[in-house]
Amino acid sequence: MGIFGQFGKMVRLNKDPDQQQIARLFILAGSSTPKDAVLVAVAIEKFVSDHGWRGDEAKDRLAHALSLVRVQAPRAVYDNATEVWRSLVGLT
């Protein structure tokens, strides 16, 4: 996909209410205690699964939602949310 295709995808995801919900869940996870963050991570996994997103699409959506957290939340929340994202995509 070329640069314009990526840009179009980003614009589409930015406007997607489901994408905004994933970002809100990441913000909740990043604002929570570690124990509660695990519960929110499970909710994120279920949300993604319920929408039928798998493989690269699921990873793209999770990464995009995390990028929304980066601009919408304080740095500490983003850092904690990043740890949740890492666990969801298998980087930890």
Quick recap:
The protein has 92 residues and is an all-alpha fold. Helix content is 84%, strand content 0%.
| Radius of gyration, CA atoms, in whole angstroms | 13 Å
Number of helices: 5
Task: Provide the number of structural domains.
Answer: 1
Mean pLDDT: 91
Element string (H = helix, E = strand):
HHHHH
Share of helical residues: over 70%
The end-to-end span amounts to 29 Å
| Biggest sheet architecture | none
Give the strand content.
Answer: under 5%
Spans where pLDDT lies below 50 across 5 or more residues: none
Shape: globular
Structural class: mainly alpha
Number of strands: 0
Could you explain the architecture of this structure?
With 92 residues, the protein is an all-alpha fold. The protein has one domain (3-88). Helix content is 84%, strand content 0%. It has helices spanning 3-15, 17-31, 34-50, 55-72, 75-88. It is globular. The model has no long low-confidence stretch (mean pLDDT 91).
